[in-house]
Design brief:
Shape: elongated
Distance between the termini: 83 Å
Number of strands: 16
Oligomer: single chain
Order of helices and strands: HHEEEEEEHHEEEHHHHEHHEEHEEHEE
Strand order of the largest sheet: 2-3-5-4-6
Radius of gyration: 49 Å
Largest sheet: 5 strands, mixed, barrel
Helix content: 40-55%
Structural class: alpha+beta
Number of helices: 12
Length: about 575
């Protein structure tokens, strides 16, 4: 392995980086893990105590309900808890109890924190079980018992104690607690006794509602505990405080074992890092070495086929690119020639576009110049005071030419929207028959002037419904009908037919009797201002934009359109997809 090679550098960098990360991980866990665990545990405990304080404030002073609330909190958070009065004295509430139904009366067996271990309490107690309790009654009514031994019902009684046998109706016992939880619960008295001399310095904080957090060590076992003291909301019973204690032994043991684990694990990890880094650096750099040799041959103008690296990564792509480069260098001249031809075609297309732009400007100027000249002539006649009988005719001509210009301008605005892609379709299920009949009513005057008739042929029994934008399709039908009427011979019939296809398409054909369209004009009639009649006779009407608008609308719908010559004239058609729903009125 050369000292300045990529393999050596990659090996060194990888090894050092992994060892640094591993060392930082060990240091961070040794220094901060225990502290983080304590802080997280105490913060979570403080939050849960706050919820407990709210529940205590809402719970009536019934000892059984308070016991259940405290016992459930101790089981859930693995803590010991006591309620203190305003003199920091413990209020006598046993969190754990068993309620028995014996001889028609209810007896509450309160589990003391002192004098009883967890092994003396039966495990897995359920409501309905039968238990025997040997102990001493603590009240005159023999309702509350201080237990000494709790056994199954078939066990023999203890001498000198009162036995009560009954069915469990309610209970709250230690669950999910650490080892010997009753011993930990009994330590609250020792922790409270050691804290009371310091209570005065914490008194201002407690009066402000601030939580007090402490640590305390059991002198006998040396185990450290976290203590959290939270003031309860004021009530008729004076100031009260929640005194909660939880063991910190698990985190200490975990950190100690983790440090011992790292002592044995560190040498193995270092050895594995060195071996894996060496293997990794060789695997990663091997394709790079091959590519370096390939590049050296290309630098010597050796364009013969090179061995490829068969890997699906950047090295494989680079190898393929280098091989492709060596194979294509001899065809560079041909590619340059093709590129030059393409450039010439682009230039020609731009020239054609420029020519079309000039023609468009000329067409617009021509279309606007003629009506403006007519309007000016009639306006000058009116200005010069023509005969009274001619004024109405002059005004009618002015209005007529103004309408022509208005139609032209509106068509140009509409067309500009389509070309700017500013039109958004709103498709719905529509009836083509209704749209055609509505359009024919609009052309009643033109039809009557030329003595035209129309014939509507539908395919099938039901009228075809299509999915399209009703406003735009009505515009298509109006433009095609206007074109058919304008070029139809007098006293002829305009035929409109609709045909369903197997693929769900509906083809609408509008056919008139009149002049056919030359082959060279069939594609250009869809362009702006293009007219098949070279004379551009104004008597034929139209702006030369109607078919261009039809083209844009059908392309937006993704549908076909076109024109064919017939025996007697020409037929324009368009296709739409059939809808299976009801018509949207």
């Amino acid at each position: 392995m050369r000292r300045h090679s990529v393999v050596f550098k990659l090996f060194i960098v990888t090894t050092v980086l992994i060892l640094i990360i591993f060392s930082l991980t060990m240091v961070a866990q040794g220094m901060f893990f225990e502290r983080f665990y304590r802080a997280a545990k105490i913060n979570a405990l403080e939050k849960n105590i706050g919820k407990l304080a709210e529940q205590l404030d809402q719970t009536p002073s019934h000892e059984q309900q308070l016991s259940r609330l405290l016992g459930a909190f101790m089981n859930k958070n693995d803590t010991s808890i006591s309620i203190l009065n305003d003199r920091y004295e413990r209020i006598n509430i046993n969190p754990y109890f068993v309620e028995l139904e014996a001889g028609g009366s209810t007896i509450v067996v309160r589990i003391p924190m002192d004098g009883m271990s967890i092994d003396k309490i039966p495990q897995g107690v359920q409501i309905g079980d039968t238990l025997a309790v040997d102990g001493i009654f603590m009240d005159e009514d023999d309702k509350i018992m201080h237990p000494v031994v709790i056994k199954p019902a078939d066990a023999s009684p203890e001498k000198g104690l009162v036995r009560v046998e009954g069915t469990v109706t309610d209970f709250m016992l230690p669950e999910h607690r650490s080892y010997n939880p009753l011993y930990q619960d009994a330590l609250i008295q020792d922790a409270l006794r050691d804290w009371i001399p310091q209570a005065a310095q914490h008194q201002p904080a407690l009066q402000k509602g601030t939580t007090v957090k402490l640590e305390w060590s059991d002198k006998w076992s040396g185990i450290r505990y976290a203590i959290v003291i939270v003031p309860l909301p004021e009530s008729g019973y004076g100031n009260r405080y929640v005194f909660v204690m939880t063991s910190l032994q698990p985190v200490g043991e975990a950190v100690g074992i983790l440090k011992q684990y790292y002592v044995y694990l560190a040498p193995i990890i270092v050895l594995l890092v060195i071996l894996l880094s060496l293997l990794y650096s060789r695997i990663v750099s091997r394709p790079l070495v091959v590519l370096s040799k390939m590049a050296a041959r290309l630098a010597k103008l050796d364009f013969t086929v090179q061995p490829e690296i068969h890997s699906k990564d950047e090295f494989g792509e680079l190898s393929e690119n280098l091989v492709s480069l060596s194979r294509k260098l001899d065809t560079a001249l041909k590619e340059l020639t093709d590129a030059n031809d393409t450039l010439q075609e682009d230039i020609q297309q731009k020239q054609q576009s420029e020519q079309l732009r000039k023609e468009l400007i000329a067409n617009i100027s021509h279309e606007l110049k003629t009506p403006l000249g007519i309007i000016k002539g009639f306006a000058e006649g009116l200005q010069d005071g023509v005969a009274q009988d001619k004024q109405e005719r002059y005004l009618a001509h002015i209005v007529n030419e103004t309408d022509r210009m208005n139609v032209l301008i509106m068509d140009m605005l509409e067309l500009s929207k389509f070309e700017a892609k500013a039109v958004e379709l709103q498709p719905s299920a529509i009836s083509l028959t209704r749209l055609i009949q509505k359009a024919m009513h609009s052309f009643a005057k033109q039809m009557e002037d030329k003595q035209l008739q129309y014939k509507l042929n539908e395919s099938g029994e039901n009228e075809p419904l299509v999915m399209a934008d009703p406003r735009r399709i009505e515009q298509v039908i109006m433009n095609l009908l206007s074109n058919a009427i304008r070029h139809a011979v007098d006293s002829s019939v305009i035929t409109i037919s609709m045909q369903r296809a197997a693929d769900g398409e509906v083809t609408t054909v509008i056919e008139n009797v009149g002049p056919s369209i030359a082959a060279e004009d069939r594609n250009r009639i869809w362009d702006h201002f293009y007219r098949a009649e070279r004379s551009r006779d104004r008597k034929s009407g139209g702006t030369g934009l109607g078919l261009a608008i039809v083209k844009h609308i059908m392309e937006l719908h993704g549908s076909g359109y076109g024109v064919v010559n017939t025996k007697c004239g020409a037929a324009f058609y368009f296709t739409l997809y059939e809808s299976r729903g009801e018509t949207d009125e």
